[in-house]
Amino acid sequence: FDKFGGNMGQTGCVSYLFADKGVIIVSNEDGDIDEDKLMETALEAGAEDFAAEGEAFEIYTEPDDLFAVKEAIEAAGYPILSAEQDKIPSNYVTLETEDDIKFMGLLIEKLEDDDDVMNVYHNWENCD
Fold it and tell me: Which residues, other chains included, contact 46 with Cβ-Cβ below 8 Å and sequence gap of 6+?
């Protein structure tokens, strides 16, 4: 961690910075999905939030509502790319310097490559 400008905290010491959410990704690769209709379907099924992100739509739910919302969206005929629980940051950080960006990228890459690491969550908004 020191090598890449990070440090190790106690287990769960930053968990308050993330919220557990269900995240459903609906593909809009062809661009033929009516955003308003999908949003209405998702919200009526119990979704909390909705965002258009390029060629996909992100639908956020409470973790307990994830599969009910997913089933309603599938029943309406929308193509689901993924539906899973995730940790969503409550705020994001923008890294300004080239060194910070470089070290954060390397740190995330090394953590993801480590067989002992199950998941990597961060609040860096510049990450690919």
Answer: 61, 62, 65, 68, 69, 72
Say if residues 16 and 88 touch (Cβ distance below 8 Å): no
Pairing of strands 56-61, 18-27: antiparallel
pLDDT tens sequence across 30-48: 888 999 999 999 999 999 9
Task: Report the alpha-carbon distance of residue 10 to residue 24 in Å, rounded.
Answer: 31
Alpha carbons 64 and 22: distance in angstroms, whole number:
8
Confidence (pTM)? 0.77
Separation CA 60–CA 24 (nearest Å):
7
C-alpha dist (Å) from residue 5 to 8, 23, 32, 34, 112:
11, 30, 45, 44, 17
